[in-house]
Specification:
Layout (H helix, E strand, L loop, with lengths): L10 E9 L4 H18 L3 E8 L2 E11 L2 H12 L2 H11 L2 E17 L18 E9 L3 H19 L3 E6 L15 E9 L2 H12 L2 H12 L3 E9 L17
Antiparallel strand pairs: 1-3, 1-4, 2-3, 2-8, 4-6, 5-7, 5-8, 6-7
Length: about 250
């Protein structure tokens, strides 16, 4: 069974590639015309492709699957298929490291991403979208994870004023070991803003939230580390549609 869209995927990969200096565009000349549609045809659903705004040689992208067994089937179909075999050398030549991969699943309750933007169309989908991905590395504490993905999520979404998608580590064994994934427990959030100005206002609101300061203090005491990725969609990115900033409850 193939997922109908990225939002319905039960398993998600967040993939972050370190590229050879100056080779981001070289990778996109292979990825965009050849590797987007072929992965979708193999049963995956791509959830956005991005350039890191603070590291122009880092490519960040998301893809999803109906489940772990379907992930194995889709990856086998793609990586052993003719399109990847024809273009893998050109793609791999641009990369220094492609092993920074998080294997994820929806939180409980689930915080699904919004419907995807349509690349190339005028209007809101063509705005200079500013994507923000937070990644928290957690200790082996299920209670802390549950707290961050419920109370923490509510604070993030209230401060940002836009929908905040969120995932947690998928603990199942990697069904396609040819592609390694990182060990550990992670929580990832993804929020979409129309532009950098709206993100800046949202970040200011978050910093002024007393409850968020309490949350970050507790996370720090527990040894949680975090990073924020500021991302720019590529031309063919099917990232979630940016919402007009406002007050979003829950």
């Amino acid at each position: 069974m193939q997922p109908s869209d990225f939002a319905s995927c039960a398993v998600v990969e967040m993939r972050r590639y370190a590229l050879r200096p100056g080779h981001f565009d070289d990778l996109q000349r292979v990825f965009q015309p050849w590797l987007v549609a072929s992965q979708e045809q193999a049963g995956m659903r791509l959830g956005g492709q991005f350039r890191d705004r603070e590291d122009p040689d880092r490519f960040v992208w998301f893809r999803g699957f109906a489940g772990m067994d379907q992930r194995r089937e889709a990856l086998e179909s793609f990586y052993y298929g003719p399109v990847w075999q024809a273009h893998r050398d050109a793609a791999n030549a641009t990369m220094l490291d492609s092993d920074d991969v998080l294997l994820l699943r929806p939180t409980e309750p689930a915080h699904h991403p919004a419907a995807p933007a349509t690349p190339g169309l005028p209007g809101p989908t063509a705005s200079p979208t500013w994507a923000v991905a937070h990644v928290w590395a957690l200790p082996a504490d299920a209670g802390l994870e549950a707290w961050l993905t419920t109370s923490g999520h509510a604070v993030l979404q209230r401060a940002f004023g836009v929908p905040v998608a969120m995932w947690r580590t998928e603990p199942a064994e990697n069904t396609f070991p040819r592609l390694p994934v990182r060990d550990g427990r992670f929580v990832v959030s993804l929020a979409m803003f129309e532009d950098g100005e709206r993100w800046g206002l949202a970040a200011d609101r978050l910093e002024s939230e007393p409850e968020w300061r309490r949350i970050t203090a507790r996370l720090s005491e527990a040894g949680v580390t975090s990073e924020v990725n500021h991302l720019q969609p590529t031309a063919t990115s099917g990232h979630p549609m940016p919402a007009v900033a406002g007050v979003v409850e829950g």
